[in-house]
Specification:
Blueprint lengths: L2 E5 L2 E2 L8 E2 L1 E5 L2 E6 L6 E4 L4 E4 L1 E6 L10 H5 L10 H10 L2 E6 L5 H8 L7 E4 L3 E2 L32 H14 L5 E4 L18 H13 L4 E5 L2 H10 L3 E4 L5 H10 L2 E3 L3 H11 L6 H24 L19 H8 L4 H8 L1 H6 L17 E4 L13 E6 L2 E5 L2 E2 L9
Parallel strand pairs: 1-6, 2-7, 8-9, 9-10, 11-12, 12-13, 13-14, 14-15
Antiparallel strand pairs: 1-4, 2-3, 4-5, 7-16, 16-17, 17-18, 18-19
Helix pairs in contact: 4-5, 5-6, 6-7, 8-9, 10-11
């Protein structure tokens, strides 16, 4: 087996340690050694650059794009059209150096397996398949006109997420797991892109959330909870969800509960900004959606800042798909603006994110024995501006998969 040494660069290993001059040796898709003066059969010169672990986005929607804000256009588009945009999205995310994602609804088992089998080039993924919601809640796709929003169309492998009552939520958890869910996504509050529900109000009773958590746990799954309002957050945390997504109206009691239970926060600071940017560009959005986004951005930022100051565990997620794919790394700078140091922001995007997804034994840092996912970055990694333009090469399992913003296509297509 060939030993490849990445030589001459500085290693920013994802553990929170300061960057240091070191070589990295890769063999058979694994990190063999990290240190000074190492040797190998082949060498990759990374002089003047930094080596980082493959990055994570813990809240993404691979099957959605920015264009989906125009609901009128979407309603008149062939249903399968959206599927043919996904390969480009996968390439865009991988070229950023994001080698692992957690899809927060929309990606199905077929998409995950297509990447696993090499039919599509993209990041590794954990999928939630569909978001669980109460009737009339954030994932209820019925519109006031009687029509169903295009993102709510059911098809084999993509069941409805609407469920109510103890028996109803228990059955729905099992249904989405049968469809391939690695993690259960719920909405324990209203949302912003669903015009008829209030983000500040709780959805699901605490008993329903506890049933979801217990049923998921029986099948070795855990729960991520879309939650804006304080009561929806607290119900979810008390019931045992692993992560709170967004956390817009966190109050002190919610923060204390999260600290006590070890609950993670995935802030998605990019999301309300993306809605406002879409509105400014003339996207066909309901007035209620725009007004909700305008009212919330400063509150959201302040909540995340207080959570960070208190020591709540934070992992990076963007809600990309609500905003345009390709801007994911801007989330690091937004996290820094809300009180995280650059080192903390990087950890939230590497080893911290791997811990949230429970894959930190294999991923998230440049340590011997781990999977050889590496990113070659120009410039100072503590400067969080313009990161996407500074990603030079991306390696997954030790193999080059992207260079200077473009994915390296396999030379031999898979034989399936």
């Amino acid at each position: 087996m060939t030993r490849t040494v990445f030589r001459g660069g500085r290693v920013f290993d994802g553990t929170g340690a300061a960057p240091a001059e070191a070589d990295v040796v890769v063999e058979d898709g694994r990190l063999l050694d990290v240190g000074v003066g190492l040797d190998g059969d082949e060498a990759v010169d990374v002089s003047g650059k930094h080596l980082l672990p493959g990055m994570f986005d813990c809240h993404i929607h691979l099957a959605s794009t920015y264009a989906d804000f125009d609901e009128t256009a979407v309603m008149h588009r062939p249903f399968t059209y959206a599927f043919f945009r996904i390969p480009d999205t996968l390439r865009t995310i991988l070229a950023l150096g994001i080698t692992t994602v957690r899809d927060a609804a929309g990606a199905d088992l077929g998409l995950k397996r297509a990447v696993q089998d090499g039919l599509l080039v993209g990041p590794r993924m954990q999928i939630s398949v569909q978001m669980l919601s109460i009737t009339g809640g954030h994932a209820d796709a019925r519109l006031p006109s009687g029509a169903v929003s295009a993102w709510g169309v059911e098809y084999p492998g993509m069941p409805s997420g609407v469920c109510d009552g103890i028996a109803g939520v228990e059955a729905k958890v099992r249904e989405v797991i049968a469809a391939g869910a690695d993690v259960i996504k719920i909405a324990s509050s209203g949302g912003f892109l669903s015009p008829l529900d209030d983000p500040s109000l709780p959805h699901f009773t605490e008993g329903e959330v506890a049933t979801i958590v217990r049923t998921a746990g029986d099948l070795e799954r855990w729960v991520m909870s879309h939650a804006h309002g304080a009561e929806g957050i607290k119900r979810a945390v008390r019931a045992g969800v692993r992560s709170i997504e967004h956390g817009t109206f966190l109050d002190d009691e919610a923060i204390d509960l999260m600290l006590d239970r070890g609950t993670w926060l995935v802030p998605t600071l990019s999301a309300p900004r993306a809605v406002l940017a879409a509105a400014a560009e003339g996207a066909s959005l309901p007035v209620a959606v725009i007004e909700k986004a305008r009212a919330v951005q400063a509150v959201h930022d302040a909540s995340v800042r207080r959570a960070a100051e208190a020591g709540v565990r934070i992992a990076m997620g963007t809600d990309s798909g609500v905003g345009p794919h390709g801007h994911n790394l801007e989330e690091l700078d937004l996290m820094a603006q809300c009180g995280l140091s650059p080192e903390q922001a990087w950890r939230a995007t590497t080893l911290g994110a791997a811990e949230l997804l429970r894959v930190d034994r294999e991923h998230g840092s440049l340590e011997p024995g781990k999977v050889a996912d590496l990113v070659v970055l120009d410039g100072d990694p503590t400067d969080l501006k313009g990161l996407a333009d500074r990603v030079r090469e991306v390696y997954r399992d030790g193999d080059p998969v992207a260079a200077r913003g473009s994915v390296i296509e396999p030379t031999v297509p898979p034989h399936l």
